[in-house]
Amino acid sequence: MKHASTQSSPAGAWSAICLRHAAVCALAGLGLAISAPATAKVEGNTIILGAAVSLTGKYSTNGKNTQDGYNLAVKRVNEMGGVKVGGKAYRLKVLYYDDESTSARGAQLAERLINQDGVKFVLGPYSSGLTKAIAPVTERYKIPMVEGNGADRNLFTQGYRYMFAVLNTSDYYLRAAINLAAEEAQRAGKSPKDLKIAIAIENDNFSQDVRDGVAEDARRLGMQVVIDEKLPPELNDMSVTLAKVKALKPDILVVSGHEKGATLAVRQVSEKRIDVPMLALTHCDSAQIIEKFGKGAEYVVCGSQWDRTLRYKDRWFGTADQYAQRFEKEYHYEAPYQAAESTAAVLAFVDAFERAGSFDTEKVRDALARADLMTFYGPIKFDQSGKNVAKSMVLYQVQDGKFKVVAPGKWASSKVIYPAPTWAKREE
Questions:
Q1: pLDDT tens for residues 254-271?
Q2: pLDDT tens-digit series, residues 63-83
Q3: Which residue of 7, 102, 140, 354 is most buried, as measured by CB atoms within 10 A?
Q4: Residues 6+ apart with CB under 8 A from 314
Q5: Closest C-alpha to 261, from 196, 306, 206, 217
Q6: Closest to 114 measured CA to CA, from 45, 34, 40, 55
Q7: CATH code for 172-304+393-426?
């Protein structure tokens, strides 16, 4: 069992035990009779939230982003006096477990949080796959869960009443790229029907949703999808796809595969000098494509749930940029949207606790269902399926070594550069 916490808590105590007694933790990882101290939903003046996040395994980068986002929210709320419920101030604390980036482990740990640790309020894991594993558990026990990292739209067709998501569904991640290319084609006197699309995705639920959203908008606009492929599961080579791109010359290449997919696409497109007018990706910021590839990342277009230049503002962090500055001071890296949406999930709980005036799970659940608040991350308002229907996705492009918002128009800080210059032009 891997169990960690950055807060002073039973989780932190257990981590210390693990450091001193590796054998004890190994036994616990096998499910033997070892358990951390039980935790009630409220201990004295402290509200306990539970979370299983990916601190190891393939999602560990975004798992850390998720945990950092949760922890920054907890720290900020606590230093501002905590959560006011029934005339009393309460502090927040998060009890963490490491789901090891596996769905089965995530479901097991959700059971543990609820049944052994007594947690009544759950924060979501990273990824749609892990969220799909945990949601049936929280639903069965009627435990409210607020999540910011499970975007698969199928999550919201299951009739869940206790799951709420602050983010946009994954089919919207790169629709804006398709529509922006169509707008630019029309501006140049061309028809969107003349544009060709290439798609390369990881074989997972999130990326499949991204692909479906792109394909739906391409069909609507009359564009032709000339390449539609799944990347190898180890995500270390897309040479076969890029050879087709070189031959068929699509106007847009869409790649989705979390941070590994973004890293792979930028590295191989730049190494092989593949000319494509628009390279559209997910997870650019968490993949740190600018830091890793420099000029090789120029002109890449990226879908994002959030950006620091947006004009959203709240009572906890102020503006989006002020949130980003606080995050960077605390964790020494730029705030990715995965962290921002995780912070927003905690704020949604804070708002619900205060409006419910109670820690009764049904009252908190109903308060979440009625949420209508503005945060640094954007507006939050849930429909009956638990989706946030008040927020829009953003699209940014790497320009002069920085992410610049290029869509939607009313939030844009820069105009998109399309088509991107050829590699020969860039090297002149």
A1: 999 999 999 999 999 999
A2: 999 999 999 999 999 999 999
A3: 7
A4: 347, 373, 374, 375, 376
A5: 206
A6: 40
A7: 3.40.50.2300
